[in-house]
């Protein structure tokens, strides 16, 4: 490392240090842990920089895990502090300008602590002690893994390692490669339609190309039942959980997604996301491109245009249509968790499925909403450290996350 890192401001100027604080890079975490072991005399400045980072990044209850976002918050601190500070008697020397810039941000952070009162400061110090202590238990992020159940009931464990090919009894060839399956029904000679089921566990996801060329990304704790070939005048698959679809257009064979609550989605050729977990309050269909129709037993229907979503609350038949945040909706498919004004339980349900953990609450659940981003490649402790900057206290024991009374 070229920087001498003799003061807190030196650390806060380094992108690698900021990524370490955010817990979004295993490489940077290892790098700074090694650096601390080699430079114990600079630990005080290191810890001071981390405290300044945590206060600035977490003061608004945000979960942002991006260097650029922290820079923005820091600039806002500097601007606010400069506007409120009395005029200097003499201008700083040119060589002092950079140092004064960064220490003004530190002063703003310390001012924030002082005005929040002793109670909040004590809570903050407790959070720092928790963050500084390595978790007794941790969980690795999910991976590409699933189980394929063939028509005869036999199962094939799947992961992201290696490539292979096997056949169903009707001659359908199934290719496995790098966390995905591709179905080729050209060798299928039987008239009888066979069904397969692809199921991801908690902590797993998988991709499949169906016999018609349509692609499906299956999120954690989900399953998709589908035929080894599409025959007749329609194509129908059965989904539990969450999946993103890119459907091959075929006006002669409309595509249907049947959900566990008898909800049906009719497609001609489009891309869309369906979230229908049993532990979620709402079932949501979000259209990215094309056109879909969402229908319920009893005749309720809603036709979606791109960037719209249909939401059905559990136990109700009404279909509510509204504008959708596409980037947030399909973030899971691109390796991110994206939150936008989400409550804590909904955030923790997503993390629980991906890290295969259980979440319990001690005392009342915080009535707050959060926004931000977390990379799905982060270990559980890294993801929770990001949550902690928003004032959320927790402990991890035997794959159980306990959210403590705030």
Automatic annotation (TrEMBL):
Keywords: Membrane, Transmembrane, Transmembrane helix. One of its GO terms (molecular function) is sigma factor antagonist activity. InterPro entries: FecR, FecR_C, Ferrdict_sens_TM. Residues 337-403 form the Protein FecR C-terminal domain. Signal peptide: none annotated. The keyword Aminoacyl-tRNA synthetase does not apply. The chain crosses the membrane at residues 100-121. Pfam families: FecR (PF04773), FecR_C (PF16344). Residues 197-292 form the FecR protein domain. Gene3D superfamilies: 2.60.120.1440, 3.55.50.30. It comes from the Bacteria. This is FecR protein. It comes from Chitinophaga eiseniae. The lineage of its organism: Bacteria, Pseudomonadati, Bacteroidota, Chitinophagia, Chitinophagales.
